[in-house]
TrEMBL record:
UniProt xrefs under InterPro entries: Bact_HTH_transcr_reg, Tscrpt_reg_HTH_GntR, WH-like_DNA-bd_sf, WH_DNA-bd_sf
Keywords attached to this entry: Coiled coil, DNA-binding, Transcription, Transcription regulation
Pfam families (UniProt xref): GntR
Record-annotated HTH gntR-type domain positions: 8-76
Protein name: Regulatory GntR family protein
Key word Amino-acid biosynthesis present: no
Record GO biological process: negative regulation of DNA-templated transcription
Gene Ontology molecular functions: DNA binding; DNA-binding transcription factor activity
Length: 123
């Protein structure tokens, strides 16, 4: 999970906090996460919010879900070489779009074009 990304929904805030604990080493690979009920009490939110946050962490590769057992912090070595998450793809796309916009501004500046008033189409 991109920890620098803005979080607007409670489940995203919970997921970001847990991901931060994993990234910092406060939660170790293989460590079992607390129960949904306990996490809901700790975060002052509902079980549904925590379940959604845990689902996001699972989708993004921070944890492994073991049915009827619980959620465990994933070892980063286990996911090395795994397919990128949708968030990874969207982040990369945003970076490419920003780079294209920056290049477009530079080209416009170098060409000395001011846009449509010089007869050239605005790109």
């Amino acid at each position: 999970m991109d920890q620098g990304a803005p979080t607007s929904h409670p489940y995203q805030q919970v997921a970001a906090d847990i991901a931060s604990k994993i990234a910092s080493g406060a939660l170790k690979p293989g460590e079992r996460l607390k129960s949904v009920r306990t996490l809901a009490e700790e975060y002052g939110t509902t079980s549904a919010t925590v379940q959604r946050a845990l689902g996001l962490l699972d989708d993004e590769g921070w944890v492994n879900r073991v049915p009827n057992v619980g959620l465990f912090v994933r070892d980063p070595a286990d996911s090395a070489g795994s397919a990128p998450t949708m968030r990874d793809v969207m982040t990369a796309l945003d970076e490419v779009q920003q780079a294209v916009a920056d290049l477009r501004r530079r080209v416009t500046s170098l060409e000395g074009t001011g846009g449509p008033e010089d007869g050239r189409p605005d790109r």
